[in-house]
Amino acid sequence: MKNNTWYKTILAILITIIHLIPIYIALTVSFKNITDFSSYWTLPKQLFLENYKVAWQNGGMPIAFKNTIIITGVSSILIILISAMAAYPLARNNSKFNNTILTMILSVMMIPPLSLLVPLYVLMRKVGAISTYWGIVSVHLAFQLPLAIFLYTNFIRALPRELDEAALIDGCSIFTIFYRIILPLLKPVTVTVLIMTGLNIWNDYRLSLFFLQKPEMKVITLTIATFFGISGANPNVAAAAAIMAVLPVIIVYLFLQKYFIQGMVESAIK
Amino acid sequence: MERELKRSNIMYIPAIIFLVVFIVYPFLTGFRISFTDWDGYSQTYRYIGIENFKLLSRDQNVRIAFVNTLIYGFGSTFFQQILGLAYALLLNKPFRGRTLARTAVYLQVLISPIIMGYMWYFILKYDHGALNDLLGLFGIKPVLWLSDPTIAVWVIVVLNTIQYVGVSMVIYLAGLQGIPSMYYEAAAIDGVTLWQEFRHITLPLLYPSIVSSVIINVIGGLKLFDIIRALTGGGPGYTTHSLSTLIYTTYFQSQSAGYAAAIGVLLFVSILVSTIILQIFFKKKGGDYIL
User: What confidence tens digit (pLDDT) does each residue in B218-248 have?
Assistant: First the structure.
Protein backbone atom coordinates (compact mmCIF):
# COMPACT_ATOMS: atom_id res chain seq x y z
CA MET A 1 0.00 0.00 0.00
CA LYS A 2 2.56 2.53 1.19
CA ASN A 3 4.72 2.36 -1.94
CA ASN A 4 2.18 3.56 -4.50
CA THR A 5 0.75 6.66 -2.82
CA TRP A 6 3.16 9.07 -4.53
CA TYR A 7 0.64 9.88 -7.27
CA LYS A 8 -1.91 10.70 -4.59
CA THR A 9 0.59 13.07 -2.99
CA ILE A 10 1.07 14.84 -6.32
CA LEU A 11 -2.71 15.18 -6.78
CA ALA A 12 -3.08 16.48 -3.22
CA ILE A 13 -0.40 19.11 -3.83
CA LEU A 14 -2.13 20.16 -7.07
CA ILE A 15 -5.46 20.52 -5.24
CA THR A 16 -3.76 22.55 -2.51
CA ILE A 17 -2.18 24.88 -5.05
CA ILE A 18 -5.42 25.44 -6.97
CA HIS A 19 -7.34 26.26 -3.80
CA LEU A 20 -4.67 28.59 -2.43
CA ILE A 21 -3.96 30.51 -5.66
CA PRO A 22 -6.46 33.34 -5.02
CA ILE A 23 -5.00 33.98 -1.58
CA TYR A 24 -1.44 33.76 -2.89
CA ILE A 25 -2.15 36.26 -5.69
CA ALA A 26 -3.92 38.65 -3.31
CA LEU A 27 -0.88 38.40 -1.02
CA THR A 28 1.67 39.25 -3.71
CA VAL A 29 -0.48 42.15 -4.94
CA SER A 30 -0.92 43.47 -1.40
CA PHE A 31 2.85 43.68 -0.87
CA LYS A 32 3.60 45.53 -4.11
CA ASN A 33 3.50 49.22 -4.84
CA ILE A 34 0.87 50.27 -7.39
CA THR A 35 3.70 51.39 -9.67
CA ASP A 36 5.10 47.85 -9.71
CA PHE A 37 4.02 46.34 -13.04
CA SER A 38 5.59 42.91 -12.56
CA SER A 39 3.32 39.87 -13.01
CA TYR A 40 1.03 39.07 -10.08
CA TRP A 41 2.64 35.65 -9.92
CA THR A 42 6.06 36.96 -8.95
CA LEU A 43 6.94 37.66 -5.34
CA PRO A 44 7.56 41.33 -4.49
CA LYS A 45 11.21 42.34 -4.55
CA GLN A 46 10.70 44.02 -1.22
CA LEU A 47 7.70 44.02 1.09
CA PHE A 48 5.75 47.20 0.45
CA LEU A 49 3.88 47.58 3.75
CA GLU A 50 2.44 50.99 2.93
CA ASN A 51 -0.69 49.34 1.42
CA TYR A 52 -1.58 47.81 4.78
CA LYS A 53 -1.01 51.10 6.55
CA VAL A 54 -3.22 53.00 4.10
CA ALA A 55 -5.93 50.33 4.16
CA TRP A 56 -6.02 50.35 7.94
CA GLN A 57 -5.93 54.12 8.39
CA ASN A 58 -8.00 55.50 5.53
CA GLY A 59 -10.60 52.89 4.75
CA GLY A 60 -12.53 52.53 7.99
CA MET A 61 -11.15 49.06 8.74
CA PRO A 62 -10.94 49.54 12.54
CA ILE A 63 -14.60 50.60 12.72
CA ALA A 64 -15.59 47.73 10.44
CA PHE A 65 -13.80 45.23 12.69
CA LYS A 66 -15.45 46.73 15.77
CA ASN A 67 -18.92 46.56 14.19
CA THR A 68 -18.43 43.03 12.90
CA ILE A 69 -17.23 41.81 16.29
CA ILE A 70 -20.15 43.44 18.13
CA ILE A 71 -22.80 42.20 15.67
CA THR A 72 -21.40 38.66 15.45
CA GLY A 73 -20.89 38.40 19.20
CA VAL A 74 -24.29 39.68 20.29
CA SER A 75 -26.15 37.72 17.58
CA SER A 76 -24.35 34.46 18.40
CA ILE A 77 -25.06 34.69 22.12
CA LEU A 78 -28.75 35.43 21.53
CA ILE A 79 -29.03 32.67 18.93
CA ILE A 80 -27.57 30.13 21.35
CA LEU A 81 -29.92 31.15 24.17
CA ILE A 82 -33.09 31.37 22.10
CA SER A 83 -32.53 28.26 20.01
CA ALA A 84 -31.40 25.98 22.85
CA MET A 85 -34.51 27.00 24.76
CA ALA A 86 -36.75 26.49 21.72
CA ALA A 87 -35.25 23.11 20.90
CA TYR A 88 -36.02 21.56 24.29
CA PRO A 89 -39.83 21.30 23.97
CA LEU A 90 -39.52 20.59 20.25
CA ALA A 91 -37.25 17.62 20.94
CA ARG A 92 -39.04 16.27 24.00
CA ASN A 93 -42.72 16.95 23.43
CA ASN A 94 -43.43 15.23 20.13
CA SER A 95 -47.05 16.27 19.81
CA LYS A 96 -48.48 16.73 16.33
CA PHE A 97 -48.62 20.47 16.92
CA ASN A 98 -44.95 20.68 17.90
CA ASN A 99 -43.85 18.60 14.94
CA THR A 100 -45.71 20.95 12.64
CA ILE A 101 -43.99 23.92 14.30
CA LEU A 102 -40.59 22.28 13.82
CA THR A 103 -41.27 21.51 10.15
CA MET A 104 -42.32 25.11 9.62
CA ILE A 105 -39.21 26.45 11.34
CA LEU A 106 -37.00 24.26 9.14
CA SER A 107 -38.80 25.17 5.93
CA VAL A 108 -38.06 28.85 6.65
CA MET A 109 -34.47 27.98 5.68
CA MET A 110 -35.66 27.59 2.10
CA ILE A 111 -36.82 31.21 1.80
CA PRO A 112 -34.08 33.12 -0.04
CA PRO A 113 -33.16 36.40 1.71
CA LEU A 114 -33.48 38.29 -1.57
CA SER A 115 -37.11 37.32 -2.08
CA LEU A 116 -37.74 39.12 1.22
CA LEU A 117 -35.70 42.19 0.34
CA VAL A 118 -38.54 44.57 -0.50
CA PRO A 119 -40.98 43.76 2.33
CA LEU A 120 -38.24 43.35 4.93
CA TYR A 121 -36.67 46.65 3.93
CA VAL A 122 -40.06 48.36 4.23
CA LEU A 123 -40.58 46.87 7.68
CA MET A 124 -37.11 47.84 8.88
CA ARG A 125 -37.53 51.39 7.65
CA LYS A 126 -40.92 51.69 9.32
CA VAL A 127 -39.57 50.69 12.74
CA GLY A 128 -36.35 52.69 12.35
CA ALA A 129 -34.08 49.64 12.30
CA ILE A 130 -31.96 50.58 9.28
CA SER A 131 -28.30 51.13 10.24
CA THR A 132 -28.80 50.08 13.86
CA TYR A 133 -27.17 47.26 15.80
CA TRP A 134 -30.51 45.94 17.05
CA GLY A 135 -31.94 45.95 13.54
CA ILE A 136 -29.21 43.89 11.89
CA VAL A 137 -28.94 41.59 14.94
CA SER A 138 -32.68 40.86 14.76
CA VAL A 139 -32.48 39.98 11.08
CA HIS A 140 -29.43 37.76 11.59
CA LEU A 141 -31.25 36.05 14.46
CA ALA A 142 -34.27 35.29 12.29
CA PHE A 143 -32.17 33.87 9.46
CA GLN A 144 -29.84 31.79 11.67
CA LEU A 145 -32.35 30.45 14.21
CA PRO A 146 -33.66 27.58 12.02
CA LEU A 147 -30.19 26.06 11.56
CA ALA A 148 -29.43 26.43 15.28
CA ILE A 149 -32.77 24.94 16.33
CA PHE A 150 -32.21 22.06 13.90
CA LEU A 151 -28.81 21.28 15.45
CA TYR A 152 -30.03 21.57 19.07
CA THR A 153 -33.18 19.51 18.45
CA ASN A 154 -31.19 16.65 16.92
CA PHE A 155 -28.75 16.73 19.82
CA ILE A 156 -31.38 16.81 22.59
CA ARG A 157 -33.33 13.95 20.96
CA ALA A 158 -30.25 11.79 21.34
CA LEU A 159 -30.06 12.45 25.11
CA PRO A 160 -31.79 9.76 27.25
CA ARG A 161 -35.26 10.73 28.43
CA GLU A 162 -34.61 9.02 31.78
CA LEU A 163 -32.61 12.10 32.76
CA ASP A 164 -35.70 14.30 32.59
CA GLU A 165 -38.02 11.70 34.11
CA ALA A 166 -35.83 11.03 37.12
CA ALA A 167 -35.56 14.74 37.87
CA LEU A 168 -39.31 15.17 37.46
CA ILE A 169 -39.97 12.46 40.05
CA ASP A 170 -37.63 14.34 42.38
CA GLY A 171 -40.04 17.25 42.05
CA CYS A 172 -38.15 19.55 39.68
CA SER A 173 -40.20 21.72 37.35
CA ILE A 174 -39.64 21.31 33.63
CA PHE A 175 -37.79 24.61 33.51
CA THR A 176 -35.42 23.58 36.28
CA ILE A 177 -34.76 20.34 34.41
CA PHE A 178 -33.83 22.28 31.29
CA TYR A 179 -31.67 24.77 33.13
CA ARG A 180 -29.94 22.37 35.55
CA ILE A 181 -29.73 19.11 33.63
CA ILE A 182 -30.09 19.60 29.87
CA LEU A 183 -28.32 22.93 29.37
CA PRO A 184 -24.96 21.79 30.83
CA LEU A 185 -25.02 18.79 28.47
CA LEU A 186 -25.33 20.96 25.37
CA LYS A 187 -21.70 22.12 25.31
CA PRO A 188 -20.52 20.08 22.30
CA VAL A 189 -23.41 21.10 20.05
CA THR A 190 -23.13 24.70 21.25
CA VAL A 191 -19.59 24.80 19.83
CA THR A 192 -21.03 23.70 16.47
CA VAL A 193 -23.85 26.26 16.61
CA LEU A 194 -21.44 29.02 17.57
CA ILE A 195 -19.04 28.20 14.73
CA MET A 196 -21.67 27.77 12.02
CA THR A 197 -23.91 30.73 12.83
CA GLY A 198 -20.99 32.93 13.90
CA LEU A 199 -19.23 32.27 10.61
CA ASN A 200 -22.40 32.96 8.60
CA ILE A 201 -22.86 36.30 10.34
CA TRP A 202 -19.16 37.27 10.20
CA ASN A 203 -19.11 36.55 6.44
CA ASP A 204 -22.52 38.05 5.67
CA TYR A 205 -22.61 40.56 2.87
CA ARG A 206 -26.15 40.73 1.51
CA LEU A 207 -28.13 41.45 4.68
CA SER A 208 -25.51 43.96 5.82
CA LEU A 209 -25.62 45.60 2.41
CA PHE A 210 -29.36 46.22 2.70
CA PHE A 211 -29.64 47.20 6.33
CA LEU A 212 -26.35 48.90 7.26
CA GLN A 213 -26.14 52.02 5.14
CA LYS A 214 -24.42 54.58 7.34
CA PRO A 215 -20.62 54.58 6.87
CA GLU A 216 -20.01 54.32 10.62
CA MET A 217 -22.12 51.14 10.75
CA LYS A 218 -20.26 49.27 8.00
CA VAL A 219 -19.01 45.74 8.63
CA ILE A 220 -15.87 44.14 7.17
CA THR A 221 -17.48 42.69 4.02
CA LEU A 222 -19.05 46.06 3.15
CA THR A 223 -15.77 47.88 3.71
CA ILE A 224 -13.91 45.48 1.43
CA ALA A 225 -16.61 45.96 -1.21
CA THR A 226 -16.03 49.71 -0.96
CA PHE A 227 -12.28 49.26 -1.46
CA PHE A 228 -12.88 47.33 -4.67
CA GLY A 229 -15.95 49.22 -5.80
CA ILE A 230 -14.64 52.75 -6.13
CA SER A 231 -13.38 53.27 -9.65
CA GLY A 232 -9.80 54.48 -9.76
CA ALA A 233 -9.14 53.06 -6.31
CA ASN A 234 -5.75 51.57 -5.58
CA PRO A 235 -6.08 47.78 -6.22
CA ASN A 236 -2.98 47.00 -4.17
CA VAL A 237 -4.48 48.71 -1.12
CA ALA A 238 -7.72 46.81 -1.76
CA ALA A 239 -5.77 43.54 -1.80
CA ALA A 240 -4.15 44.45 1.51
CA ALA A 241 -7.59 45.16 2.99
CA ALA A 242 -8.89 41.81 1.72
CA ILE A 243 -5.96 39.97 3.30
CA MET A 244 -6.56 41.75 6.62
CA ALA A 245 -10.21 40.77 6.43
CA VAL A 246 -9.62 37.04 5.90
CA LEU A 247 -6.71 36.72 8.30
CA PRO A 248 -8.76 36.35 11.52
CA VAL A 249 -10.93 33.61 9.97
CA ILE A 250 -7.87 31.73 8.71
CA ILE A 251 -6.11 31.92 12.08
CA VAL A 252 -9.15 30.78 14.05
CA TYR A 253 -9.72 27.98 11.53
CA LEU A 254 -6.16 26.67 11.76
CA PHE A 255 -6.50 26.42 15.53
CA LEU A 256 -10.01 24.98 15.66
CA GLN A 257 -10.05 22.96 12.44
CA LYS A 258 -11.61 19.90 14.08
CA TYR A 259 -14.64 21.89 15.25
CA PHE A 260 -15.16 23.60 11.90
CA ILE A 261 -15.28 20.28 10.06
CA GLN A 262 -17.54 18.71 12.68
CA GLY A 263 -19.82 21.74 12.31
CA MET A 264 -20.00 21.36 8.54
CA VAL A 265 -20.89 17.68 8.83
CA GLU A 266 -23.51 18.14 11.53
CA SER A 267 -25.30 20.97 9.80
CA ALA A 268 -25.47 19.04 6.53
CA ILE A 269 -26.47 15.56 7.65
CA LYS A 270 -29.31 14.47 9.81
CA MET B 1 -44.65 14.27 32.47
CA GLU B 2 -47.12 15.05 29.67
CA ARG B 3 -48.56 18.04 31.48
CA GLU B 4 -45.13 19.37 32.41
CA LEU B 5 -43.93 19.00 28.84
CA LYS B 6 -46.92 20.93 27.58
CA ARG B 7 -45.94 23.77 29.89
CA SER B 8 -42.46 23.79 28.35
CA ASN B 9 -43.92 24.77 24.99
CA ILE B 10 -43.68 28.43 25.97
CA MET B 11 -39.91 28.07 25.60
CA TYR B 12 -40.10 28.26 21.82
CA ILE B 13 -42.21 31.40 21.79
CA PRO B 14 -39.22 33.84 21.57
CA ALA B 15 -37.87 32.00 18.52
CA ILE B 16 -41.31 31.97 16.87
CA ILE B 17 -41.70 35.72 17.46
CA PHE B 18 -38.43 36.49 15.66
CA LEU B 19 -39.30 34.19 12.77
CA VAL B 20 -42.82 35.56 12.38
CA VAL B 21 -41.84 39.24 12.60
CA PHE B 22 -38.73 39.15 10.41
CA ILE B 23 -39.47 36.33 7.97
CA VAL B 24 -43.06 35.10 7.84
CA TYR B 25 -44.73 38.52 8.02
CA PRO B 26 -42.42 40.10 5.38
CA PHE B 27 -42.84 36.98 3.27
CA LEU B 28 -46.61 37.49 3.21
CA THR B 29 -46.42 41.27 2.64
CA GLY B 30 -44.06 40.49 -0.24
CA PHE B 31 -46.89 38.74 -2.05
CA ARG B 32 -49.17 41.73 -1.45
CA ILE B 33 -46.58 44.26 -2.71
CA SER B 34 -46.02 42.15 -5.83
CA PHE B 35 -49.61 42.95 -6.89
CA THR B 36 -49.06 46.74 -6.68
CA ASP B 37 -47.32 49.42 -8.73
CA TRP B 38 -45.56 50.77 -5.63
CA ASP B 39 -42.25 52.58 -6.23
CA GLY B 40 -40.93 51.92 -2.74
CA TYR B 41 -41.17 55.47 -1.40
CA SER B 42 -44.57 57.04 -2.12
CA GLN B 43 -47.42 56.99 0.36
CA THR B 44 -49.83 55.82 -2.31
CA TYR B 45 -49.95 52.87 -4.64
CA ARG B 46 -52.52 50.96 -6.63
CA TYR B 47 -53.31 47.29 -6.86
CA ILE B 48 -52.71 46.27 -10.44
CA GLY B 49 -53.53 42.57 -10.22
CA ILE B 50 -51.13 40.26 -11.98
CA GLU B 51 -49.79 43.07 -14.19
CA ASN B 52 -46.26 42.72 -12.70
CA PHE B 53 -46.22 39.02 -13.40
CA LYS B 54 -47.37 39.56 -16.99
CA LEU B 55 -44.61 42.11 -17.46
CA LEU B 56 -42.16 39.71 -15.86
CA SER B 57 -42.93 36.91 -18.30
CA ARG B 58 -42.10 39.23 -21.22
CA ASP B 59 -39.05 40.89 -19.66
CA GLN B 60 -35.87 39.83 -21.46
CA ASN B 61 -33.70 40.69 -18.43
CA VAL B 62 -35.80 38.53 -16.11
CA ARG B 63 -35.62 35.67 -18.59
CA ILE B 64 -31.81 35.91 -18.72
CA ALA B 65 -31.56 36.13 -14.93
CA PHE B 66 -33.88 33.15 -14.55
CA VAL B 67 -31.84 31.00 -16.93
CA ASN B 68 -28.62 32.14 -15.24
CA THR B 69 -30.05 31.28 -11.82
CA LEU B 70 -30.74 27.73 -13.02
CA ILE B 71 -27.23 27.50 -14.51
CA TYR B 72 -25.68 28.77 -11.26
CA GLY B 73 -27.82 26.43 -9.16
CA PHE B 74 -27.72 23.21 -11.13
CA GLY B 75 -24.41 23.79 -12.94
CA SER B 76 -22.38 24.27 -9.79
CA THR B 77 -24.27 21.46 -8.05
CA PHE B 78 -23.31 19.09 -10.86
CA PHE B 79 -19.61 20.01 -10.80
CA GLN B 80 -19.54 20.05 -7.00
CA GLN B 81 -20.81 16.46 -6.82
CA ILE B 82 -18.27 15.14 -9.34
CA LEU B 83 -15.35 17.07 -7.88
CA GLY B 84 -16.47 16.63 -4.25
CA LEU B 85 -16.77 12.87 -4.66
CA ALA B 86 -13.41 12.69 -6.45
CA TYR B 87 -11.77 14.71 -3.64
CA ALA B 88 -13.41 12.57 -0.98
CA LEU B 89 -12.31 9.31 -2.61
CA LEU B 90 -8.77 10.64 -2.96
CA LEU B 91 -8.54 12.11 0.55
CA ASN B 92 -10.34 9.35 2.46
CA LYS B 93 -7.37 7.13 3.34
CA PRO B 94 -4.22 8.57 4.98
CA PHE B 95 -1.17 9.41 2.87
CA ARG B 96 1.42 12.16 2.70
CA GLY B 97 -0.23 15.48 1.78
CA ARG B 98 -3.79 14.48 2.67
CA THR B 99 -4.16 16.87 5.60
CA LEU B 100 -2.65 19.70 3.58
CA ALA B 101 -5.15 19.29 0.73
CA ARG B 102 -8.12 18.95 3.09
CA THR B 103 -7.08 22.10 4.96
CA ALA B 104 -6.77 24.10 1.73
CA VAL B 105 -10.14 22.90 0.39
CA TYR B 106 -12.03 23.68 3.62
CA LEU B 107 -10.33 27.04 3.97
CA GLN B 108 -12.22 28.46 0.98
CA VAL B 109 -15.58 27.44 2.42
CA LEU B 110 -14.93 29.62 5.45
CA ILE B 111 -13.95 32.79 3.62
CA SER B 112 -16.71 35.24 2.85
CA PRO B 113 -17.78 34.71 -0.79
CA ILE B 114 -17.75 38.45 -1.51
CA ILE B 115 -14.08 38.70 -0.45
CA MET B 116 -13.22 35.49 -2.27
CA GLY B 117 -14.81 36.99 -5.40
CA TYR B 118 -12.68 40.12 -5.14
CA MET B 119 -9.55 37.99 -4.73
CA TRP B 120 -10.40 36.10 -7.93
CA TYR B 121 -10.68 39.45 -9.67
CA PHE B 122 -6.87 39.77 -9.70
CA ILE B 123 -6.67 36.43 -11.46
CA LEU B 124 -9.45 36.98 -13.98
CA LYS B 125 -9.15 40.59 -15.01
CA TYR B 126 -8.36 41.06 -18.67
CA ASP B 127 -5.42 43.38 -18.48
CA HIS B 128 -2.49 42.03 -16.49
CA GLY B 129 -4.69 39.40 -14.77
CA ALA B 130 -2.84 36.38 -13.41
CA LEU B 131 -4.65 33.83 -15.60
CA ASN B 132 -4.17 35.76 -18.85
CA ASP B 133 -0.50 36.28 -17.91
CA LEU B 134 -0.12 32.55 -17.47
CA LEU B 135 -1.85 31.78 -20.79
CA GLY B 136 0.40 34.35 -22.44
CA LEU B 137 3.41 32.20 -21.55
CA PHE B 138 1.95 29.51 -23.82
CA GLY B 139 1.19 32.01 -26.54
CA ILE B 140 -2.55 32.01 -25.89
CA LYS B 141 -4.30 35.33 -26.46
CA PRO B 142 -5.87 36.99 -23.38
CA VAL B 143 -9.50 36.00 -22.73
CA LEU B 144 -12.31 38.31 -21.58
CA TRP B 145 -13.13 36.17 -18.55
CA LEU B 146 -15.55 38.66 -17.03
CA SER B 147 -16.80 40.82 -19.89
CA ASP B 148 -17.83 38.11 -22.34
CA PRO B 149 -21.30 37.15 -21.01
CA THR B 150 -21.21 33.48 -22.04
CA ILE B 151 -17.77 32.95 -20.52
CA ALA B 152 -18.54 35.02 -17.40
CA VAL B 153 -21.59 32.93 -16.46
CA TRP B 154 -19.53 29.74 -16.51
CA VAL B 155 -16.60 31.42 -14.74
CA ILE B 156 -19.02 32.21 -11.92
CA VAL B 157 -20.21 28.57 -11.88
CA VAL B 158 -16.62 27.31 -11.73
CA LEU B 159 -15.60 29.74 -8.96
CA ASN B 160 -18.66 28.86 -6.90
CA THR B 161 -17.78 25.18 -7.40
CA ILE B 162 -14.18 25.67 -6.31
CA GLN B 163 -15.17 27.65 -3.24
CA TYR B 164 -17.87 25.27 -2.01
CA VAL B 165 -16.62 21.88 -3.19
CA GLY B 166 -15.44 21.43 0.42
CA VAL B 167 -19.05 21.18 1.57
CA SER B 168 -19.74 18.25 -0.77
CA MET B 169 -16.37 16.72 0.08
CA VAL B 170 -17.01 16.78 3.82
CA ILE B 171 -20.45 15.17 3.32
CA TYR B 172 -18.99 12.44 1.11
CA LEU B 173 -16.08 11.84 3.50
CA ALA B 174 -18.55 11.34 6.34
CA GLY B 175 -20.55 9.00 4.09
CA LEU B 176 -17.47 6.99 3.09
CA GLN B 177 -16.48 6.55 6.71
CA GLY B 178 -19.92 5.09 7.39
CA ILE B 179 -19.49 2.25 4.87
CA PRO B 180 -18.49 -0.92 6.76
CA SER B 181 -15.13 -2.20 5.60
CA MET B 182 -16.44 -5.79 5.43
CA TYR B 183 -18.10 -4.99 2.09
CA TYR B 184 -14.75 -4.09 0.61
CA GLU B 185 -13.11 -7.12 2.18
CA ALA B 186 -15.76 -9.39 0.69
CA ALA B 187 -15.32 -7.69 -2.67
CA ALA B 188 -11.56 -8.17 -2.49
CA ILE B 189 -12.06 -11.91 -1.94
CA ASP B 190 -14.33 -12.03 -4.99
CA GLY B 191 -11.65 -10.22 -6.95
CA VAL B 192 -13.78 -7.33 -8.28
CA THR B 193 -12.28 -4.42 -10.19
CA LEU B 194 -11.97 -0.97 -8.68
CA TRP B 195 -14.76 0.30 -10.95
CA GLN B 196 -17.13 -2.52 -9.94
CA GLU B 197 -16.36 -1.82 -6.30
CA PHE B 198 -17.17 1.88 -6.79
CA ARG B 199 -20.29 1.22 -8.87
CA HIS B 200 -21.82 -1.52 -6.73
CA ILE B 201 -20.64 -0.77 -3.19
CA THR B 202 -19.50 2.82 -2.75
CA LEU B 203 -22.08 4.61 -4.89
CA PRO B 204 -25.25 2.87 -3.60
CA LEU B 205 -24.15 3.20 0.02
CA LEU B 206 -23.38 6.89 -0.48
CA TYR B 207 -26.94 7.55 -1.64
CA PRO B 208 -28.06 9.44 1.51
CA SER B 209 -24.93 11.63 1.29
CA ILE B 210 -25.65 12.38 -2.36
CA VAL B 211 -29.19 13.46 -1.49
CA SER B 212 -28.05 15.85 1.27
CA SER B 213 -25.24 17.26 -0.79
CA VAL B 214 -27.34 17.85 -3.93
CA ILE B 215 -30.19 19.54 -2.07
CA ILE B 216 -27.88 21.81 -0.05
CA ASN B 217 -25.90 22.80 -3.15
CA VAL B 218 -28.95 23.44 -5.35
CA ILE B 219 -30.60 25.70 -2.78
CA GLY B 220 -27.31 27.52 -2.13
CA GLY B 221 -26.61 27.92 -5.85
CA LEU B 222 -30.08 29.23 -6.70
CA LYS B 223 -29.58 31.96 -4.07
CA LEU B 224 -26.22 33.05 -5.54
CA PHE B 225 -25.56 36.74 -4.93
CA ASP B 226 -22.19 37.70 -3.42
CA ILE B 227 -19.80 36.33 -6.02
CA ILE B 228 -21.79 37.91 -8.87
CA ARG B 229 -21.75 41.26 -7.11
CA ALA B 230 -17.98 40.98 -6.66
CA LEU B 231 -17.05 39.89 -10.16
CA THR B 232 -19.50 41.27 -12.70
CA GLY B 233 -22.20 43.16 -10.78
CA GLY B 234 -24.63 41.45 -13.17
CA GLY B 235 -23.00 42.98 -16.23
CA PRO B 236 -22.08 43.53 -18.96
CA GLY B 237 -25.59 44.89 -19.33
CA TYR B 238 -27.90 42.44 -17.59
CA THR B 239 -26.23 39.32 -18.92
CA THR B 240 -24.84 37.69 -15.77
CA HIS B 241 -27.51 38.65 -13.23
CA SER B 242 -29.09 35.98 -11.07
CA LEU B 243 -32.64 36.58 -9.87
CA SER B 244 -31.15 37.65 -6.50
CA THR B 245 -28.87 40.34 -7.90
CA LEU B 246 -31.63 41.46 -10.29
CA ILE B 247 -34.02 41.99 -7.37
CA TYR B 248 -31.43 44.14 -5.62
CA THR B 249 -30.79 46.22 -8.74
CA THR B 250 -34.50 46.57 -9.53
CA TYR B 251 -35.32 47.75 -6.03
CA PHE B 252 -32.44 50.08 -5.20
CA GLN B 253 -31.56 51.39 -8.65
CA SER B 254 -34.78 51.28 -10.66
CA GLN B 255 -37.00 51.99 -7.64
CA SER B 256 -39.80 49.70 -8.61
CA ALA B 257 -40.73 47.91 -5.40
CA GLY B 258 -43.79 46.14 -6.76
CA TYR B 259 -41.84 44.68 -9.65
CA ALA B 260 -38.86 43.71 -7.45
CA ALA B 261 -41.26 41.95 -5.07
CA ALA B 262 -42.73 40.06 -8.03
CA ILE B 263 -39.26 38.84 -9.03
CA GLY B 264 -38.83 37.86 -5.36
CA VAL B 265 -41.92 35.67 -5.64
CA LEU B 266 -40.48 34.11 -8.82
CA LEU B 267 -37.20 33.38 -7.00
CA PHE B 268 -38.99 31.77 -4.07
CA VAL B 269 -41.18 29.67 -6.36
CA SER B 270 -38.11 28.54 -8.37
CA ILE B 271 -36.40 27.31 -5.22
CA LEU B 272 -39.58 25.69 -3.90
CA VAL B 273 -40.30 23.88 -7.17
CA SER B 274 -36.66 22.76 -7.55
CA THR B 275 -36.66 21.38 -4.02
CA ILE B 276 -39.96 19.56 -4.50
CA ILE B 277 -38.77 18.05 -7.78
CA LEU B 278 -35.53 16.93 -6.11
CA GLN B 279 -37.42 15.50 -3.14
CA ILE B 280 -39.70 13.53 -5.44
CA PHE B 281 -36.70 12.49 -7.47
CA PHE B 282 -34.94 11.21 -4.37
CA LYS B 283 -38.20 9.81 -2.98
CA LYS B 284 -37.69 11.52 0.33
CA LYS B 285 -40.20 13.28 2.48
CA GLY B 286 -39.83 17.02 3.11
CA GLY B 287 -38.14 18.05 6.32
CA ASP B 288 -35.95 14.95 6.38
CA TYR B 289 -33.05 16.95 5.14
CA ILE B 290 -31.92 20.39 6.00
CA LEU B 291 -33.30 22.70 3.36
Answer: 988 999 999 999 998 887 888 999 999 999 9
ipTM of the complex: 0.88
Are A105 and B15 a contacting pair at CB < 8 A?
A: yes
Tell me which residue of B43, B108, B145, B8 sits closest to A20, measured CA to CA: B108
State whether A124 and A249 are in the same domain: yes
3-state SS class at A35? coil
**Is A153 within the bounds of a domain?**
yes
Question: Which superfamily does CATH assign the domain made up of B60-281 to?
Answer: MetI-like (1.10.3720.10)
Query: pLDDT, tens digit, for every residue of B19-73?
Result: 999 999 999 988 888 998 888 777 778 888 888 888 888 889 999 999 999 999 9
Window 12-71 of A, Cβ < 8 Å to B: 12-13, 15-16, 18-23, 25-26, 29, 37, 39-41
A contact test, residue of B3, B5, B66, B124 with most A CBs within 10 A: B5
pTM of the model: 0.89
Distance from first CA to last CA of chain A, Å, rounded? Answer: 34
Range of the domain at A13: 2-48
Scored b (16 or more CB within 10 A) or e, B210-222 reads bbbbbbbbbbbbb
A80 and A184 belong to one structural domain: yes
